Amino acid sequence: MKKLFRLLLFAAALAALAKLPFRSTDAAKLTPVRTVIVTHAGEQYEVDIGAAARGIGKTLNDALDDLRQTVTGVLFLPTAEQVIVVDPAGTDAEAVRAVAEESSFCPAAGLYRTGQTDLDAEAVGAYLSSHPSNTTIMQVRGRLAMGEQPRLPALRQENGGYLVEAK
Do the Cβ atoms of 160 and 123 come closer than 8 Å? Predict the structure, then answer.
């Protein structure tokens, strides 16, 4: 009787595991991302990851969904080392909050703000990889949760290169 009970319990466990929402992805199909540039203009978000891949939508999540449709393979955002919020006026708290709350981004990714709209994601990514931010998405989430307005390091293009100004 005990053997039958154990067998039934084992069969039930296997059946339950088969129904769990596990999803596997072939690593060769992943499209890793180093730098994400998020622009919020009016009622629209635009997400740029370089390599002519852009997504547009009414919300950041919609723009990321659109981006997922345009890339070859499976978009893998947790590899992004830095996220740049394009904010020419320096007052777009909504875009900063949307980026901080987006669960697709790695919490340890550096978060920057820029006023320039013509950034090359690949070139700026190479620069920022050697000049990491001391402000991460997780830190911004924490500040927003405490009701504080986070100050992000400012990125600007100057003399053919880039410069990060401390917050």
Answer: no
Q: Collapsing DSSP states into helix, strand and coil, what is residue 115?
A: coil
pTM of the model: 0.81
- pLDDT tens string 51-82: 778 899 999 999 999 999 988 888 888 888 99
CB-CB contact of 49 with 82 (8 Å): no
Domain ranges of the chain: 28-165
Nearest to 96 by CA among 82, 83, 106, 109: 83
User: Residues 137-165: what's their mean pLDDT?
Assistant: 89
